[in-house]
Each structure stands twice: as structure tokens, then as C-alpha cells.
């Protein structure tokens, strides 16, 4: 109990820097509906969504966000028609090829979370290149969740912990919340202070289940291709007014 509490406090210690979130995670949803409402193919919505990605990365950097996580492809998205999956993989390729140099120049570190073994080899290589090239950058960390699913991530952590115990390298009784967190794909990344989902849906869709224990949520009706830096600022303003208690008593009321 004590261990868990201290781990939580550590993970969220600098979370509320003047009401500014350290880590913002976004479930970028609504590309398909954006396209359909205009009589366009879904791919066009995804293409426009990439432009929003560029705008929001730049803006988050300007707002001093330390970590920006973008959910771009879930482990469940493989169940979409093959053509759409193909287009989404193509867009990731194009994004890394076209934008990596700009991100690097802007001092952004890129990290990708998600299962890589089942990705085409050229994409895995592009991801590795992006991470290696930007490893020394510290202006902002961009975490791209691609082929990511939180239950799969937790199952993988359990598998690797079990293997360490079986090999005699880890005492099962010593496993605490920090040990688990270190075995997740997000190891070393603070928990998200704020999770935004666009398009009006109000669910996590298997995103950061462990990490979201004390996240604030913002569900906005705007479809992702229409989401603007001003919308991001509005969510930040709303976040600033929230009272995060982490199970304790209100810091504001006590003041
Ligand atoms: C989000 O938009 C992008 C991905 C999930 C890859 P959607 O494609 O889910 O758009 P909607 O929800 O169908 O409108
Ligand atoms: C979640 O959106 C995944 C991404 C944004 C990449 P989905 O559109 O796949 O989620 P559901 O199916 O509506 O829950
Ligand atoms: Mg969707």
C-alpha cells in the first residue's frame, strides 16, 4: 500500500506545473466520419488527420508540453478492411519519411509504443531510425502509439516478469507497482495528466489502461481533422481549473 502510494506520487510529482500538464495523450478519432460527411473516401479523412497531427505537435511544443502521446493505430484496427489498413500503414511511412527531419530539427524526441514484431520490416526499420536519430533530443517527447493495445502491453509485461522470476533473476514477492510500470512499453514516460479524445466518443478503446489511473479526461465533439490549436488550448484551460486529488484532499480547499 505504502509502496503503491509513493510510486503514484513520484509519477505525478511534477504533473501540475502551474496547471500545465506534463504529459498529454490524444485518442485521435473521427477521421472516417469527417470524410463521410463530405462524401469523401475514409482515406482522405486519415490524410487530413495527418495535417492535424503536424499542427498539434508544433503547438504542443510551443505550449511547453513535455510529452505528447498520439494514438494512431490500435491493435484492434487490423480488423478494418485491408485497403484501409494498407492506407494507414502507408501514411505512417510517409509521415516518418517526410517529417522526421523537421521533428529532429525542432528538438523532438520520438518514441513509438506498440507491438513491432507483426509490422512490415520496412516500417519497423523506419521506427528504429526515428528513435535512434532523435534519442538525444529533449525539447518534447512525441510518443506514437502504433499497433498499440493496452491489454496486450500488460500481458507482455506479465510474461516478461514471469520469465525473470522463473530464471531466478527476480523475487516474485518484490514485484510492486514500479516494477510493473518498468515493464510496460511506456517505461520511463510519466503517466498522462490529460487524455483527450476527439469525435465525441467517450471510451478508452484499450489505450493506456494502467497509465490512466489518475488522468483527467477531455472528450471533445470535434472530429480529428477539424481539431485546431485553439481547441487544444481550450482543453488546457479547462484542465487548469480541475482539482486533482489523487485520493487525498483538495490542495485548493486546504490552501
Ligand atoms: C481515427 O479515425 C483514426 C484511426 C482509428 C486509425 P477513425 O478512422 O476511427 O474515424 P471514425 O471513428 O470512423 O470516424
Ligand atoms: C481508437 O479509435 C484508436 C485510434 C484512435 C487509433 P477507434 O475508432 O479504433 O475506436 P473504437 O473502435 O471506436 O472504439
Ligand atoms: Mg474511430
From TrEMBL:
GO terms for molecular function: ditrans,polycis-undecaprenyl-diphosphate synthase [(2E,6E)-farnesyl-diphosphate specific] activity; magnesium ion binding. Substrate binds at residues 30-34, 42, 46, 74-76, 78, 80, 197, 203-205. Its cofactor is Mg(2+). It is an enzyme of class 2 (transferase). The active site is at residues 29, 77. GO terms for cellular component: cytosol. InterPro entries: UPP_synth-like, UPP_synth-like_CS, UPP_synth-like_sf. Mg(2+) binds at residues 29, 216. PROSITE patterns: UPP_SYNTHASE (PS01066). Gene3D superfamilies: Decaprenyl diphosphate synthase-like. Binds 2 magnesium ions per subunit. Its EC number is 2.5.1.-. GO terms for biological process: polyprenol biosynthetic process. It comes from the Bacteria. CDD domains: Cis_IPPS. Keywords: Magnesium, Metal-binding, Transferase. Catalyzes the condensation of isopentenyl diphosphate (IPP) with allylic pyrophosphates generating different type of terpenoids. PANTHER family: DEHYDRODOLICHYL DIPHOSPHATE SYNTHASE 2, DEHYDRODOLICHYL DIPHOSPHATE SYNTHASE FAMILY MEMBER. Homodimer. HAMAP family: ISPT (MF_01139). NCBIfam families: PRK14830.1, PRK14834.1, uppS. Belongs to the UPP synthase family. This is Isoprenyl transferase. It comes from Methylobrevis albus.
Amino acid at each position: 500500500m505504502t509502496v503503491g502510494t509513493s510510486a503514484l506520487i513520484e509519477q505525478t510529482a511534477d504533473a501540475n506545473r502551474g496547471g500545465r500538464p506534463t504529459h498529454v495523450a490524444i485518442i485521435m478519432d473521427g477521421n472516417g466520419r469527417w470524410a463521410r460527411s463530405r462524401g469523401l473516401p475514409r482515406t482522405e479523412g486519415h490524410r487530413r488527420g495527418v495535417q492535424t497531427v503536424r499542427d498539434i505537435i508544433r503547438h504542443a511544443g510551443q505550449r511547453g508540453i513535455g510529452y505528447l502521446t498520439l494514438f494512431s493505430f490500435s491493435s484492434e484496427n487490423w480488423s478494418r478492411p485491408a485497403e484501409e489498413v494498407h492506407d494507414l500503414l502507408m501514411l505512417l511511412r510517409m509521415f516518418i519519411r517526410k517529417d522526421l527531419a523537421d521533428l529532429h530539427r525542432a528538438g523532438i524526441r520520438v518514441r513509438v509504443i506498440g507491438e513491432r514484431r507483426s509490422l512490415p520490416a520496412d516500417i519497423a526499420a523506419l521506427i528504429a531510425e526515428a528513435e535512434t536519430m532523435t534519442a538525444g533530443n529533449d525539447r518534447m517527447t512525441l510518443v506514437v502509439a502504433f499497433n498499440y493495445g493496452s491489454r496486450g502491453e500488460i500481458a507482455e509485461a506479465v510474461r516478461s516478469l514471469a520469465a525473470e522470476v522463473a530464471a531466478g533473476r527476480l523475487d516474485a514477492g518484490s514485484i510492486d507497482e514500479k516494477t510493473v510500470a518498468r515493464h510496460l512499453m511506456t517505461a520511463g514516460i510519466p503517466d498522462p495528466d490529460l487524455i483527450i479524445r476527439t469525435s465525441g466518443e467517450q471510451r478508452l478503446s484499450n489505450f493506456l489502461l494502467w497509465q490512466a489511473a489518475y488522468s483527467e479526461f477531455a472528450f471533445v465533439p470535434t472530429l480529428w481533422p477539424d481539431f485546431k490549436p485553439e481547441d487544444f488550448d481550450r482543453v488546457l484551460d479547462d484542465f487548469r481549473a480541475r482539482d486533482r486529488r489523487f485520493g487525498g484532499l483538495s490542495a485548493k480547499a486546504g490552501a
